[in-house]
Amino acid sequence: MTIAIVLGIVFIALVLFSLDTLPIEVSALTIVCLLALTRVLTPAQAFEGFSNDTVIFIFCLLAMTQGLASTGVVQLIGQRLSFFARYGHQVFVLAMMGAVAVFSSVISNTVTTAAFLPVAIGAAHRAKVPKSKVLMPLAYASMLGGMVFLYGTSTNLVMSAAMQKLGMKGIGVAELAPVGLPVAVLGILVVVLLGPLLLPAREGQGSDGGWALRDYLTEAVLPEGSAYQGKELGDISEGLGLRVIGILREGQAIAAVPSYRLEGDERLIIEGRREDILRVKDLRGIELRSDMKLGEGALDSRDTVLVEASVPAGSPLTGRSLKEALFAERFGLVALALHRKPAIQRLTKLQMLGRIFGQQSLSTMPLSVGDVLLLRGPRSRVAELADGTALLVLSDYEYQPPRYGKALLAVCFFLGALGAGSLGLLPLSVAGLAGMLGMIATGCVDARVAFRVDWRVVLLIGSMMALGVAMEQSGAGKFLGSRVAELGAYGGPRLVLTMLMLMTILLSAPMSNQAAALVVLPVAVSAAAQLGVDVRPFAIGVTLAASCSFITPLEPSCVLVYGPGHYRFTDFFRLGTPLTAVLVVFLVFAVPLVWPFEGALPTAAR
C-alpha cells in the first residue's frame, strides 16, 4: 500500500511540474506536505532535506558567488567568455560548455554550476544572447563533465563505496574517463547543434533583478594621463567588454575600428546595457562625459542610488535638453545614459556622430516622451520625483562599485571553501558557511547582498530529497527496478544493461542521482548473477546513467538555472530527450567494450 501511495505522489509531482501552473517551489512544497499528510514520512523526515549538508552548502555557494560578483571576479571571467560571441552564438556556447565541463570533471557539478551561473549570465548579456539559450547548456555541461573522473560528482564517490561493500573493486580515479570523456564531448556537440533549435529565446520580465534589458547611449572621454592614450580601441571595446559605436575627433566622425589608436582628445559614443555603463564609470583611465555634475560629496554618499526613469506625457522636460533644463541643478541627479525606442535610438546615434542635424551630445539632445534616463544621485532627491510630473521612476538599484581590491581575497575564500569541503577536511555545510562569513567579515560583500540568493533553489532541492527518502524507505525504487530486470532478462546482458540505465534515469527524476543509483545497484548485481556475467559493466553503466538526468529540471544543477533562465518544465524535456537518447545508445555499446560482460566474476556476483 505504501509503495502505491509513493508512486501516486511521484505521478502527482511530475504532473504539477510539467503543467507549470504553479511556481515550481510551490509544487515542491506540496509534495513534502503530501508525504507528511499520508504518513509515508514523519514530519521530521519530510523536512530533513532542508538541513541536509548539500542543501546548506549550495546556499552558501550562491551567497559566495555574490561576493565574487561584488569584487569584479565574475565580470572579468565573463568578459573573457563573451569574447567568443564574435564568432557566433554556437561558438560562444561551445566555449562556455567546454570550460564548465573541464572544471566539473574535478569539482562537483553542482558547485561548478553555482560558480559559473553569474559568469554565464554576465557573458550572455554582453554577447547579446538570451539567458535561456545559455543557462541550460551550462547545467548540462557540468553534468557531462562530472562523468569523466571519480571526483566529478558525488554520485561517482557514493557508487564506488557501495561497490566495495558488495565485494567489488571501487571505481578508479580515471577509470570512467575512456567512456566519460567521449560522452562529455558527444553531449556538448549535441547541445551546441540542437540548442539553437530547441531552446526558447526567453528573457522574461524583470530578468535582471527588476531591470529591463535596455540598450543605453552614453559618451566617454579619456582624461589627462589616461593609461589608454596611445593604445588601440580594441583594448577598450574588446578587452573591457564595451561596445564603442563611434568616435568623434575635432568634430569629425571616425569609424570605431579595433585598430584605431586613441590619442585622448576624442569623444567615444558607447552603447550598452546597465552593466556596460557602470563598468565605464568605474574604470580608471576612462570617464563618462557629462555636463551635468554634482558635488563630489553628494556622489560619495552612502545613500547614493541608481534609478531608471522615463519621461511621461506632459513632462516639462519634453522638447528640452538636459542642459537647457538645468537638470543637475534642478533635480540633483546625474544623467549617465539615455535609452530611446529602437527607431529613435538609431536616429540619435547618427545625431551624436554628427552625420545629420549637426553634432550633438546627450546633454544637448531634446528629450521626448518615452525616453528612459539612467540616473544617479542621493535617495532623497530620487524621492522628490515621486509625483511623476517630470520623471516617472521605473526601478531603482542599490549601486555599489566593484571592490576590486578584495578580488583576490574573495577568490581565496571561495576556493578554500570548495577545497575544504571537497577533500573532507570540513563538513560541506561548515566549509561553505565559513567561506561565506569570511567574505562578509572582510568586506568582500555586504551581508544584505550576500543573502540575495534564489531561495527557490533551496526549497526545491530540499523538497526533492524528501521524495527520494520516501522512494527508498517504502521500497518503491526496488519494486520498479526488479520489474525492469525481469523484462530485460529475456534479451541478454546488453538489453538488461539498457533497461537498468533507463530505470536509473527514470528514478533520478523523483529521487536524487545517488539514491537512484544505489536503488538500482542491487538489482544490477542480482541480474548479473542470474545471467552469469560480470557485474562491473552493469555497475558502471548505472553510475554513468545517474548523471544523464537531462529530461527534467529536478537535478540540482538544473534547479540552479531553472529560475534565472525563465525556463518551463517542458523546455528540459525538448532538449533533454534527444540528448539522453544519444548518450544512452552510446553508453550501451561503449560500456561493454571497456568493461566486458565476460570478465572475471566478482565474489558478490557468484
Automatic annotation (TrEMBL):
InterPro entries: Cit_transptr-like_dom (IPR004680), DASS-Related_Transporters (IPR051679), RCK_C (IPR006037), RCK_C_sf (IPR036721)
Source taxon at top rank: Bacteria
Residue ranges of domain RCK C-terminal in the record: 204-286, 294-391
Spans traversing the lipid bilayer: 28-47, 54-78, 90-117, 138-159, 179-199, 407-426, 457-475, 487-508, 515-533, 539-563, 575-595
Pfam families recorded: CitMHS, TrkA_C
Keywords in alphabetical order: Membrane, Repeat, Transmembrane, Transmembrane helix, Transport
Intracellular or extracellular location(s): Membrane
Bilayer topology term: Multi-pass membrane protein
Protein name: SLC13 family permease
Species the sequence originates in: Stigmatella ashevillensis
